[in-house]
From TrEMBL, chain A:
Protein name: Cell division ATP-binding protein FtsE
Organism: Gluconobacter wancherniae NBRC 103581
Domain ABC transporter stretches: 5-240
GO cellular component: plasma membrane
InterPro entries: AAA+_ATPase, ABC_transporter-like_ATP-bd, ABC_transporter-like_CS, ACT-like_dom_sf, MetN_ABC_transporter-like, P-loop_NTPase
Pfam families: ABC_tran (PF00005)
SMART domains reported in the protein's UniProt record: AAA (SM00382)
Keyword check for Transport: yes
From TrEMBL, chain B:
Protein's GO biological process: D-methionine transmembrane transport
CC annotations in GO: plasma membrane
Subcellular location: Cell membrane
Pfam families named in the record: BPD_transp_1
Topological relation to the membrane, as annotated: Multi-pass membrane protein
UniProt record similarity statement: Belongs to the binding-protein-dependent transport system permease family. CysTW subfamily.
Parts of the chain that traverse the membrane: 20-40, 52-76, 82-105, 142-168, 188-211
Superkingdom classification of source: Bacteria
Domain (ABC transmembrane type-1): residue spans on this chain: 13-205
Keyword entries, A-Z: Cell membrane, Membrane, Transmembrane, Transmembrane helix, Transport
Protein name: Metal ABC transporter permease
Amino acid sequence: MTPLLEIRNVSHQFGDHSALTNVSFSVEQGDILGIIGRSGAGKSTLLRCLCALQKPTEGEILLNGADLVSLPERALVLERRRIGLVFQHFNLLNSRTVAANIALPLEISGIPSSRRRARVKELIEIVGLEGHENKRPSQLSGGQKQRVGIARALATEPVLLLCDEATSALDPETTASVLDLLAEINRRLGLTIILITHEMDVVRRFARRVVVLEHGKVVENSPVVTLLSDPSRNENIAHLFPDTLIQIPSDQKAYLQTDPFPASEVLLRLGDTAASLPSALLSELGRNFGADIRLLNGGITQVGGRNIMDMIIRLPVFSPEIQMFLKNRCQTVEVLGYVPSDR
Amino acid sequence: MSHLIAELVFRATLETLEMVFASGAIAVLGGLPLAVLMLVTSRRDLFDMVWLSRLLGTVIDALRAVPFIILLVLLIPVTRLIAGTALGTAAAIVPLSIAAIPYYARIAEVSLKEVDAGLVDAVRAMGGTRWMVIRYALIPEALPGLIAGLTVTLVTLVGASAMAGAIGAGGLGDLAIRYGYQRFNTTVMLSVVAVLVVVVMSIQAAGNMVARRLR
């Protein structure tokens, strides 16, 4: 199957500054892709290229085979109607009501007003804004505004939904509800979503694939599960997103030594990308080997519908039997070092 | 106050209102397109023609730099060409409009500039043409500011129309100079001032009300 969107060797130059260098990746129909990077990594430039608001200096951006880079402006106007865009700061028109904001893309596409009304009603239901149709955007909360933004982006039944830091201006609770809405839209409509963000947490909870941008280059392009569970890949992006990896608590880290010494306990990192839930791993370990286990950090989290185990534990002994037991139960067992038992 | 003076003041008020609103209307008709043109040509994502924007800005500022009393005199030949005479209320509308167009253009441009660039992006990203950006985003979003700017322009025109009285335009300014100043008729002078205050305050109140409703 040919991908819905294919980015080939896209580079963009602002004067003599390279915002994007040789960016290539593709997005399959129905996928949820997270594009993550720190500010200045080229995310915004890439987004403006993807929604055809800006032409990169080099490369091709193929949406269903049509190249957004080489098309003339007249044709681009039509292509843009097939791409929905959700903004960080909502960008709603305060001169219009909620319903009229959602109807705007339909008006622009020349859809008659009777069909517009029916479609707006549908969209209001999809995003759960019944009763707010005649309000002004300024009368809504941030989360509600973003729902209007999403409804507006969906109005013309786009083949691709681009979200530009769509949750960055929202509080954590509202972020979760907006992400849930987007996930539901992806599931119900099979709509392909690209989410541009600087928050690893958003990618972890929502995306299936992730593209990591750094200094305008793609440094990682893989399924989220792989990225978050493979320690070698983890190191690749750990310096970008230190919160991605769980850390040894700092009070323990101060006493950490690489080799065992008398009266020392071992720190282990246990990892598994397909952990079974509920997990009795730690209690089995304690019962079978009579060991006191201290959980220092981590646990099991859901990423892209899978249970990812990542935890750091402390054990008084690390016998070959324990090692064998853990190796059988977890994909990765890593010795992080040793700390004095009285700390 | 005698009946005669009251009638003089009344007629002069009508003349002033005629001058102010006629030239105000022309200021919007001429100034708003200029403001839009100045803004959209200055923006790279709309009609990337910065040279045109700069040229317009320069012409507009040059016109605004000329003191109105001097513009009145300078424009007498133009006024004769357009209105057929340099005297009277209709004739005064010509220099008043020519002064008000660049004045309003600058004020309107400021309001248009304040429209969030994100809204321009939004309309463009929906597949709107550049004309749709002007129609759906720039003008409606700037409307409260455009109305407030018109209010300021009208109030300025009330003052300018009084100055036009100095070269025989009629209206309240003319009345105040001929009766109030040259004939030392304090009653006329004070009534004219009182009427001007009422006119200005009414325009301001009406403008505020419309702008508030739009917000």
